[in-house]
Amino acid sequence: MTIGLRLALAAGAALVLLTACGDDSNSAGNRDQTQVNAPDRRTVISTINVEVETVEVVERSIGQVSSRTAPSLIAEVDGRITAVHVDTGERVKRGKLLLEIDPEPYALALASARADVRRLEALVHSQGRQLERQRQLLANGAVTQGTFDTTEGEYRNLQEQLEGARIAVRQAELDLRNTRVTAPVDAEVDERMVSVGDFSTRGQPLFRLVSQDLLRVRLPFPETVGARLAVGQTVRMHAPLSAADVVEGSISELRPGLMGGSRAVEAIINVANPGSWRDGGSVNAEVVLDQRESVVVPNQSVVQRPEGQVVYLIEDGTARAQKVRVGVRARETVEILEGLEGGETIAVDSAGFLTDGADVQVSEGGAQ
Question: At what angle do helices 104-140 and 145-177 cross, to 10 degrees?
């Protein structure tokens, strides 16, 4: 072999060796870069420490508002209506004059009744003096017992007539007062049934008033719920268009009733008007049937799995499935009857993406 051939072979071997070394170096570099770029497979969650809170068991209903005071005013005397001072929709104070009936016939009747009283008072006085004289004469034997008894009977009869005349005066005074119809309570005039010039008769409707200050709410409940209702239970109510203005009251009365052909129980709540409620309106209400201390967690922390409902306990960066039994659900929370004692740390956000044994990472600010 010539010297030139040996040099060529040596150069080729060296080139192959350098190429092999370069490949090994690139491979190691790629492995390191792959480890750096490997994704973090831990699920990012937020957590909460489980606490025991007061849980309310409530029953909801839609009720009807009515006025506790809705008097219908009627004419208590006959007569021509001479003045009407209010109209439908007006607010009136107690004692406000609403209507006037011609008072003249009743003023004359009162004057006549008073005259009868004065006449009978004079007769009773005279008969009393005569009775006293006859009592003295009877003692002296100047008159008979029969004569004295007759005089005494006439005296007692006049006394009874006088009492009747005095009653007639009181009735005439009452009739005269009833020619002026006034508001018995602070209220609104819901309806006016008469006008000036009408002749009213005793018992004829004149006005219908509605007091908006004191209201009564009637809440219907199914018969199955009725057994759990009791007088004194707390009721929270709000009008459909003002849910933020909650009015609290209590059940004052329970009444059985029939509604729509089915048995129902009516709960009666008396309440002061918060300002915007009106007779005939509706309210949304909930009755607090029971209160108890229970574990409460956010709704999103309870997840449905094939084995049932579970929450995920977080321990050392690992999620552990814990089966639970739930109770009362509210808008944002749910009661846990079994499975948690309080004080545990559980997953909240992203709980639905977890499995038993999954690695987790608590987000910044995620522990509540």
Answer: 160
User: Which residues make Cβ contacts (< 8 Å) with residue 118, sequence separation at least 6?
Assistant: none
What is d(CA 257, CA 267) in angstroms, rounded to the nearest whole number?
A: 10
Measured CA angle at 159 (ends 158, 164), to 5 deg: 95
| Other Cβ atoms closer than 10 A to 304 | 9
How far apart (Å, rounded) are the C-alpha atoms in residues 87 and 85?
7
Query: Comparing C-alpha atoms, which of 215, 216, 190 is closest to residue 205?
Result: 190
**What pTM was computed for the model?**
0.54
Burial of 27 (0-12, 13-18, 19+ CB in 10 A): exposed
> Whose CA is closest to 251, among 226, 237, 230, 227?
230
- Residue by residue, what is the 3-state secondary structure of 168-235? HHHHHHHHHHCCEEECCCCEEEEEECCCCCCEECCCCEEEEEECCCEEEEEEEEEHHHHCCCCCCCEE
Question: CA-to-CA distance for 198 and 75, rounded, in angstroms?
Answer: 12
pLDDT, tens digit, for every residue of 135-189?
Answer: 999 888 888 999 999 999 999 999 999 999 999 999 999 999 999 999 998 888 9
pLDDT tens, position by position, 261-302: 567 888 999 988 888 788 888 999 999 988 899 999 999 999
